[in-house]
Amino acid sequence: MNKLEVLAPAGDEERLAAALNFGADAVYLGREQFGMRASPQNFSFEQLCNAVELAHSKGVKVYLTCNTLPRNDEIKFFERFVREAVEAKVDALIVADIGLLMLIKRYAPDMEIHISTQTGIVNYVTARELHELGAKRVVLARELSLDEIAEIRAKTSPDLDIECFVHGAMCVSFSGRCLLSQYLVGRDANRGECAQPCRWGYHLMEEKRPGEFFPIFEDEKGTYILNAKDMCMIEYIDKLAEAGVYSLKIEGRAKSAYYVTVVTNAYRMAVDEYYKHPYVFKLPDWIRDEVYKVSHRKYCTGFFFGRPEESQYYENSGYIRNYDVVAVVDRCENGTVYCTQRNRFFAGDKVELLSPSSKPVELTLTELFDEEGQPIETANHAMMRFSFKSDLEFPSGTVIRKETE
User: Fold this and answer.
1) Per-residue DSSP letters for 197-234?
2) pLDDT tens across 78-137, in order?
3) Which of 75, 264, 401, 402 is most solvent-facing, going by the fewest CB within 10 Å?
4) What is the extent of the structural domain holding 71?
5) Tens digit of pLDDT for each residue in 345-355?
6) Which CATH number belongs to the domain containing residue 30 in this structure?
7) CATH classification at residue 350
8) DSSP assignment, residue 342?
9) Alpha carbon 183 to its chain's center
10) Cβ atoms 250, 264 nearer than 8 A
């Protein structure tokens, strides 16, 4: 039975805490430079040091991204970037550029190196050579099937880890190497600045009819011909393990802390279920349902089972969102659950409480109380403290969510 790593995204300190509290074996994060996600807050040097210390105290590894394709004028900053990664004691650097790979070996010979999916590894020869160059892990291109991954596993050193993206948004281009954003709006996707033009709606315009826009399909909204569905492989943990995948990577450094909480927790529980019954793995419906309780596009399985037939969604690029976080549990004392509000809700609302590695608990909050213990009808002030009575105990950080109407 293969050991599997649940690898969660951490776009900032709040999302890092979510990943650590809800079962990640490792997290990946970025700094202000050299990372493929420029929009999240990311981590300063001081924050990086604190993040690594906190993660290591929980037995969780930290992988730092430096997977952009940097230009000449950025190279001079890379030595300091690597030196600070060593000082912060990160467990590995994720790199896409061969030149940066060689610089890491020069500046930090003992640093573990992971090769990013941006490199586009699709065969065992490339994987072998990168291992010879010093890579401990390859993050394979998303365009590979399970059979192809299994062959790469069989024909490479067992000392080389294989990592794959298993959940989250997919780019329409080859393993994220896209020129659309740079071409259309001057924001380079290969430098972490993607404007996501693949999610836009498009029309045709005939050159002799300026101002007249024709839908590519007969739809007044246009068509979303480039819009990929989200990936979801939570029901196929056993197949991923059988193919030799070691690390299960969840996309989403730009997603919310709630997203990181729920999806990390779901994959943690799915992997634990696999450990219990590796040869007759069947995911409980309630674990599968968790990934539908975050903001998501329609799901597919990408290329894992061959050429995808249903991987694009042409109607719109919007998200499906069925639940809102209404509060987070601070502590439980003497039959009272003390919480901090996140979104407005009312006494009498039916909610779910999600704790780490646990089935969600449904409750109807018949009574709410303010900080002074006085009854209130609604929790309607941002970050207000409130409480409710319960015979059940919930750990700090438990998420309280409500189904949207």
Assistant:
1) GGGS-BEEE-TTSTT-EEESSS-TT-B-TT-BPEEE-G
2) 999 999 999 999 999 999 999 999 999 999 999 999 999 989 999 999 999 999 999 999
3) 75
4) 5-173+227-300
5) 999 999 999 99
6) 3.20.20.70
7) 2.40.30.10
8) S
9) 27
10) yes
